[in-house]
Each structure stands twice: as C-alpha cells, then as structure tokens.
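From the shared-data thread, chain only:
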Amino acid sequence: MPELPEVERGRRLAERIARGRRVVRVRCARDPIIFEGAGPARLHRALLGREVRAVRRRGKYVWFELDARPWPLFHFGMTGAFRARDEAPLLPASGPRLPDRAWPPRFTKLRLVFEDGGELCLTNKRRLGRVRLRNDPAGEPPVSRLGFDPLLDLPPAPVLAERLRGRKIRLKGLLLDQSFAAGVGNWIADEVLYQARLDPRRPAGSLGPEEVARLRRKLRHVVTTAVRVDADKRRFPRTWLFHQRWGRRADARTARGEAIEHLTLAGRTTAWVPSVQG
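Structure, as tokens:
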C-alpha cells in the first residue's frame, strides 16, 4: 500500500502537472466502487473548466483546491497512483518489475487533460482507492479524523509522550492507527521501530522519556529521508530494514547480518530484529 512518502510523491507530481492550470478534458471510468458518492457525471461537472489552485496532502489523502467547490479528494488504496506521461512509475517495493509505460496506463480510473496539454491519470488496479468530492476536505471526514502528519506537524517529544501515556495498545498497532499518525503504514512502522530499537509488541504507554524522544526522532528521520529521495526504494539507505523485510523468509537478515523474524501484529505482517529491539 502506498504510504506517506509514496503519496507525497504523487502530490508533488500532481502539483507539477496541474497547479495553476485549467482542466479542459475529464475522462472517468465507470466504476461505482472507486468514485464513492462522486459518480462520473458529478465528477465531470466539478472538474471541467476548473483551475487547480493548489494540491494538498494529509496522511495518505491528496486533494485539489480548485477555483470553485466542491474539491476532489483522493485515496490511493492498495495500488493507486498518479501517473504522468513523462514520469516513470515507482517499482514495487517487494521485487523488481518492468515499469508499464503505456499511455494512458492500464487501470486508469480518472484522466485529466489541462490547458497546456499536460495529462494526469489516476490508476487503481485493485479498486480499493477512493475519489470523493468535499467542500472542505481538511475539515470533513475522513481527513478531519486523522492524527498528526509526521512530515507536516510532528508534535514535540513532550506532547508525544503525553499522547502515549496510559496507552495499552502495542507500539506497532498504534503507529498503524491513522487517527494517531496519519500516513504511517506497515513498512514505515517496522523501519521506525527497528531504528529506534523498540520492541513492536510493547505497550505504547510503557515508553520512558528517552524512548519517546528516540521514537520521534526516528519517525521524522525515516519519513523525511524517504520523501527526500521521492519514495524511490532503490535510494533508501542500504542499512535499512526495508530492503530485507519482505517475503517472511526464514533466513532473512539485515545488511548488518542481524536475524529478522516475522510475526503478525494488528493484523499485519511485522518484520523485526529481536537482537536489536529487545
């Protein structure tokens, strides 16, 4: 599933293609699942002829601020992405695959053409993404229910410690809770806990002040590093758990030679290193 860095990459791409430009053509797939409450006809009316003033993101949600409301709100789901003609798609995190350079791409759900000839497509293979229309995306559900965004408004350590106080939920489950940390998904949570040397099974409220500060520092580091390289997994530091966490291999080891184990927490496969995260 696209996590914060991948979604931020999509936001930046959409901003480059769309901001300051007017939509002159809209093509919507007939897909009532993707267009939740915003069918093709309504979406067409909302977008055609409108100028994109800004492209915003919070957590895993992106929206366009248009010169008239309502505004489109996008969630990529498991396999969604924005695509542009001159932009190579991200390769899958868990293995090599040749990029699809066909245009429009397969599984295109929404295709926008702008006044300067630029095009932006929303693709979604597994149909778990959503396109909604909102008058105020930031102030309405689902965005209004999100917690802090680690890239936009990560709270200081004392505030974070207060939010953890008394919480019995395990650390891994808490990090995956979008009402706590918006945009954090499975691989980010595992990477942060590995780098922070914290057991993913620990109750969140059991952390001491130094551990909370370490958790915050590593959360900021992992997210900002991934965003800085535009979510290109090939450019993540070679020492990251990310590169070896996939597939539940019994012989998996980190770049430092540490044994990786796998378990299921909060319904998700968790990769961790017991020798480090004791």
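The domain at 4-145 is CATH 3.20.190.10 (N-terminal domain of MutM-like DNA repair proteins).
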